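Training component of the fellowship. As part of building independent skills, the fellow (R.M.) carried out the full modelling exercise for a liganded target. The chosen ligand was zinc ion. The inputs are recorded below so that the supervisory panel can assess the work.
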Amino acid sequence: MTLWFETALLPGGWARDVRIVLSGARIGAIETGVAAQPGDSRHGVALSGLPDLHSHAFQRAMAGLAEAPGGAGRDDFWSWRETMYRLVGRLTPEDVLSVAAMAYCEMLEAGFTRVGEFHYLHHDADGQPYAEPARMAAAVASASAETGIALTLLPVFYAHAGFGGAAPSEAQRRFVSDLDGFARLREGCATALAGLDGAVLGTAPHSLRAVTPGELSALLALAPDGPVHIHVAEQVPEVEACLAWSGARPVRWLLDHAPVCDRWCLVHATHVEPDEVAGIVASGAVVGLCPITEANLGDGLFPAAALLDAGGKFGVGSDSNVRIDAAEELRLLEYGQRLLHRKRTVLARDDRSTGRTLFDHALAGGAQALGASPAGIAIGASADIVALAADGEGVSGDALLDRWIFARGGIESVWRGGREVVRGGRHVSRDAIAARYRRTLARLVSQ
Ligand code: ZN
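Fellow's submitted model of the complex:
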């Protein structure tokens, strides 16, 4: 199978008249400045697929269902979490497969070709481990296999309701494990990933709220390599509670007490001081930004311009999956910074446009965070390629990315692991996946 593009963004920059020869799941050869050959599949603009570095796939089922003010008092992250916990109580492994497949189908249609699934819904409705401890993770792996998206599975260790080892709440019963139980769960996850093309297994201490320092050390000993992801400093009350517990802010505490390095992804890191930004950059860790969800939950704005000025790395994630759109995550990231600084093109760097800078960071940072480096359209790399829909308006180079992200670009086709999974803007299995999802949602909402 050979693809031919009028133009393609390769690791070295834009090239014209590009032939990409697929060799199974990988890119076998790339030629530039050549005409299409008979039999080539011809397209307009080729980009690498982007990593979605932070997803809770099951939350797709509550998208749009938590936008009415709930009861008395303030509606914020914590009241949203109560709605999420009610949904969690009802989900079966079959539901998780159905909802995750819908989310992954939409990710592929939106230009994401690998997902980092931060997976914490482990046990049955009573909080008991399934006979097969990783039953829920296996449902996530099945959704990846059904849709074709590459999976970095991040099984979450969750043990406490607050800093200092507070006992977990009843609503958290489906998440919590002790260290022995988590070790069994992680073994089950490795089994669930066997045979899944390009799958990566990582580890995720949920947050400093949910994991004690001793447990954090034990988790890292259990997983001596692979990605490490943690939610950190998403909310001001979380920062205040961490200060009360330890005298340090959450990111500062992590940098001082954990071996944070380039295996790590600090998810959100919204509320950070300049010394914490400098510490993240020095560690080599990636910051995992989820602009749509962070806006939806009223988290706050991460100082992304300061991170780039210091030479730091970020990727983007769809987190709650309230909307799934790679271009929109990048657009909202830049717009948040524009509103904050009251300037334009805040995140453009070097001689690259804003869209190009955002895209390059999301690709490299996301791939690092998901254990899938190097990324990009290169010989030997996984054939994860997005073809933008042609707009016929004659722009070229970085302006193509700016049009896709800031204006009205669409996606025509997506190849994941060499297989065309999106054609004409639609996932090839969309109809069946969407029909099953509608049945699942109707049942969940009626319960
Ligand atoms: Zn999250």
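The panel noted the following from the submitted structure. The mean pLDDT is 95. The longest helix spans residues 93-109.
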